[in-house]
Automatic annotation (TrEMBL):
<dbReference type="GO" id="GO:0016209">
    <property type="term" value="F:antioxidant activity"/>
</dbReference>
<keyword id="KW-0676">Redox-active center</keyword>
<comment type="similarity">
    <text>Belongs to the peroxiredoxin-like PRXL2 family. PRXL2A subfamily.</text>
</comment>
<keyword id="KW-0049">Antioxidant</keyword>
<dbReference type="GO" id="GO:0005737">
    <property type="term" value="C:cytoplasm"/>
</dbReference>
<dbReference type="InterPro" id="IPR032801">
    <property type="entry name" value="PXL2A/B/C"/>
</dbReference>
<protein>
    <recommendedName>
        <fullName>Peroxiredoxin-like 2A</fullName>
    </recommendedName>
</protein>
<dbReference type="Pfam" id="PF13911">
    <property type="entry name" value="AhpC-TSA_2"/>
</dbReference>
<keyword id="KW-0963">Cytoplasm</keyword>
Length: 77
């Protein structure tokens, strides 16, 4: 996102939401890499959930992570 991330309204909304919630991270790091969450099933199940940040502070839905995790089926040995 580089400099364009600095000018996005959603980034500032996420920043203030985190600040009001009491988040006090160290803010170290390069600041250009967005994150993501993957839930991957066993064996041939593959990817059950994929969430990629579109802008800084874009959070994954916890219920969707739990729902995807419940779909993981143990692989027979």
């Amino acid at each position: 996102m580089m400099l364009s991330g600095f000018f996005r309204i959603g980034v500032w909304q996420n920043f203030f939401r985190a600040w009001r919630s009491g988040y006090s991270g160290n803010l170290e790091g390069e600041g250009y890499t967005l994150g993501g969450v993957y839930v991957i099933g066993a064996g041939r199940q593959g990817v059950l959930l994929e969430h990629r940040e579109k802008e800084f502070g874009d959070k994954v839905s916890l219920p969707s992570v739990l729902e995807a995790a419940e779909k993981i089926q143990p692989q027979a040995s």
